[in-house]
Amino acid sequence: QNFREQRIDGSSLPLLTEDHLTVTMGMKLGPALKLRATLSRRLGHCAICLHCVHCHNTP
């Protein structure tokens, strides 16, 4: 329900931070972390970074 109220769709879901999920959406920290980790795995992203150039610069 919160996702609908906040108009969170598939394209904005991966952009959510733990703070968004816990403070704004009212989720507990554990489920918020699990959701982010699941999204990261499914999308092929790192769970701990935002794919910055520093971390993902190929030599």
TrEMBL record:
Residues 2-39 form the SAM domain. InterPro entries: PcG_chromatin_remod_factors (IPR050548), SAM (IPR001660), SAM/pointed_sf (IPR013761). One of its GO terms (molecular function) is histone binding. GO terms for biological process: negative regulation of DNA-templated transcription. One of its GO terms (cellular component) is PRC1 complex. PANTHER family: POLYCOMB GROUP PROTEIN (PTHR12247), POLYHOMEOTIC DISTAL, ISOFORM A-RELATED (PTHR12247:SF138). This is SAM domain-containing protein. It comes from Zootermopsis nevadensis.
